[in-house]
Amino acid sequence: MRLSTYIVRRVAMLVPVLLGVLVLIFVIAYVIPADPARAWAGPRARAEQVQALEERYHLNDPIYTQIGIYLKNVLLHFDLGVSPTTGRPVRDDLKAFFPATFELAMCAFFLAIALGIPLGVISALRRNRPTDHFSRVVALTGVSTPLFWSALLLQFLFYFKLGWLPAMGRSTIDITRYTGFVLIDSVLNWNWTAFGDAAIHMILPAATLAFYSMGYLVRITRGSMLEILEAEYVITARAKGLPRKIVIYRHALKNAIIPPLTVLGVEFGWLLGGTVLLETIFAWPGMGRYAAGSIVMVDLPAVVGYTLVVAMIMLLSNLVVDILYSVIDPRIRVGGKRR
Amino acid sequence: MRIPGSMLFSSRYRLLQKRLHPITKEWGLTFYVLRHSKLAVVGGLTALAFIFIALFGSLLAPYDPISANIQDRFQPPSASHPLGTDTMGRDVMSRMLAGAQHSIKAGLIVLAIAVPLGVLLGGIAGLFGGWIDEVIMRVTDMFLAFPSLVLAMAFSAALGPSLFNAMIALSVVWWPMYARLVRGQALAVRETSYVEAARSRGASSLHIMFKHILPNCLSPILVTLTLDMGWVITAAASLSFLGFGAQPPIPEWGRMVSDGRIYMLRAWWMSVFPGLGIVLVVLGFNLLGDGIRDSLDPKLRRLTEVTWKREKISSSSTD
Description:
The structure holds two protein chains of two kinds.
Chain A: H1 3-30, H2 36-41, H3 47-56, H4 63-77, H5 90-125, H6 130-144, H7 147-161, H8 182-188, H9 192-229, H10 232-239, H11 244-256, H12 258-262, H13 264-281, H14 287-296, H15 300-328, H16 331-335
Helix pairs in contact in A: 1-15, 5-6, 5-9, 5-13, 6-9, 7-9, 7-13, 8-9, 9-11, 9-13, 10-11, 13-14, 13-15, 14-15
Chain B: H1 5-19, H2 27-35, H3 38-60, H4 92-128, H5 130-144, H6 148-159, H7 163-190, H8 193-200, H9 205-241, H10 253-260, H11 269-296, H12 298-318
């Protein structure tokens, strides 16, 4: 199978899954015993107001009609509905909050890769030595520490006790927004003070998130590196007199890196899930905090919109990883035997 | 005539193999490997200690974990209150001891619902294949398409915030991983010659599922289960932290961290100790899970098998 055919097929397979995700969300929303219209209208609302809301959001229609109306709006007008609690279109809200979350997740993602993969490789090369034990303990502690607790602790330590890093928010300096990504915008404004400010705000949340998600990467990298180091071609290369360094860099590393690559999609999903907790603690103006607030308010259009966007990002990141994987390892495309 | 020990052992060993079921045939070796991994032993002991606290914590608590005692509020850790007191003057240690049961309950209930469900669906998908497989796996994909915490939040908000509903919500999002795992295993086992033999003998699908597929899934499930115990406890605590799980005055650990959050400067012990408790418990289950995984790893087993057999022979000869 050619690469382009493979990509087209994979993209086509996204459609039914996304549709299913939408149905799933509606089913969850549908089983809500609470009366959402009453919650939106407030405790003092008159019966007519509640009824008007029910009419407006089609809450009394059967579930398939609701899904149909929603789908029509999304596909024809790219409209995710209006949030009954904020009164703003969900699409605009998500657009405003998306860059903060994505920026945070990306920074944490690259930090996790930059730390996790080398740590795993070193760990494997120094198997059962102090370095190995150290990196395994670091990895395991990271995985075992609840995100909300490590975030609180780091905030307490670096803000309240040491006063080195800010604890809340994304930036304190106002700049012209082009993309919504503060780090990029400050560079576009050529405002390095703003860049430094944004970067300093990024450190704590990104580090917390990276520490948490790094452990899995360390484990996978270590395991795959250990396996490769025992492979026959590596032993042959050593036996024919090639220096250890060259064998490691040229023969082992290249192949050992594939398994960690394949879990990057899952990894990114974890990061996105983690942002819900982190944004609440660090007062980060992102989608996660928006979603947590909306869930509390039973703000159905906002919740459905958020989950749809997140599911889309997760499916796309998995797709990118799969494509990357098939570029590196052509057997995936050809065999079609992957399970 | 003198029979060499190794030959005697191998014949006895083969007999053992014949009589016992494939998975149970080497439990001894599994425990042997597990016992010799220091970290796994530490993890196992931590997990056991946690289970003990969960069972008897309420009895061990020196103070009442629920009722307020205002004049003692915000006491720092001291001899009478080893982990300090909270906003209402309640002893943090007593609350933690009494609250351990909620975490383990969450872990047990969630896995008790999610694992059988996932195993059943995965087994059905792998065994029957075709459109049944296709439907089940696409549903699984949908569940895996978004972060489980977000999905669990939505479920628990839909059902109303309580610890019980949080458990239901987590069970609903937890089964797909097991479905995937069992399906993969089932697909592999289905093609083996012994399943074909069983089929040609006229064995039913049910028989194949319970006698061949499920036993082969047991060890990966066991590993995932142990690791997941820690994950579920963290997830339940996270839900409680966000306000979707245990409600006051229940001393659930995640809830305690969240209650102490605004008093960090005044009384850091309110959040730090319950969180530390979660870390230790989850670390314990992770270490144990890793240990079990290693002990089921064929490579490591082969290396250890020799010493194990030797020890077994020497112990049987001294009897």
